[in-house]
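Q&A FORM
Asked by: J.P.
Topic: structure of proton-translocating NAD(P)(+) transhydrogenase

PROVIDED:
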Amino acid sequence: MPRESGAGERRVALVPKVVERLTGKGLEVVVETEAGLAALLPDQQYTDAGATIGDPWAADVVVKVAPPSDEEIARLGRGTTLVGFLAPLAHPEVIQKLDEAGVRAFAMESIPRISRAQSMDALSSQANVSGYKAVLVAATESTRFFPMLTTAAGTVKPATALVLGVGVAGLQALATAKRLGARTTGYDVRPDVADQVRSLGAQWLELGIEAAGEGGYARELTEDERAEQQKRLTDAITGFDVVITTALVPGRPAPKLVTAEAVRGMKPGSVVVDLAGETGGNCELTEPGQTVVRHDVTIASPLNLPAGMPEHASELYSRNVSALLELMIDDEGRLAPDFSDEVLDKSCVAGKEAK
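REPLIED BY: S.T.
REPLY: Here is the structure written out as tokens.
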């Protein structure tokens, strides 16, 4: 496990508890010096777990969080196996460079979202962190209390929160906002998630537009559907104090769900937290990575929220990585990925034919 080089990336691919599990299976784990410091994990904890502090780039398998830089790719030997978030759809050039370098690469975000692979589903584990943090951002930026408060000076009504896109991040956002006392509502173009929204004590916003797609994702809407959706959403959004957006379409720019007109119609002091900033944002007025005020409405688009909670985010991600590693290592501790397995076949994005 090398030290992460990306700006602001505090997560690690292996935590000491998982290192202990891997070394207990007879594997040798090499950790780069100070690789875990940003996650408050000193070298001593790794050596106590059985790891060696040294050069990780010479290992048979290199595990990371963020995609490798050009310099890091150059340090990977031909025949090395790389595991991490590799952004194969957003950055195909990285995959091409890995392929040309003779590196066999497994992208954590390409693991199929099937029941058998739930323990490896890093997208879901990290989305839980994002959904939780998004609500805390909203509560911090809001000019209003989330819960109803009864005081000697009178009663304060609870804030109303709308979550657009109720996958894992959206459901966590609904649950967290509910715990803080807000009146919550969820919306998604996939009607089958309505029961999940209601199970969290939230209301379902019915707009009459459905777009269920493959693999648990939403399909891209047609132009007519998108126009009608925006019209209905614009009318609905203006009635909420907080709007949290999480809608993503793999390999495509984020759909624009919150129009400038909708922001203009929101009450002054309202908040929009846009979790789709990496792919352009769900709000027309979003500035990815920035918090801005437009028409007296605060629009926050924090990037890489899981990195802000490195302890638990790393713990969850490390378990995902370990589960994938165990799938490709045989009983004798040899690296022997079986590509007849759907999980390994679909997650291998480069060097599948490498020996």
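FOLLOW-UP: The domain at 129-307 is CATH 3.40.50.720 (Rossmann fold).
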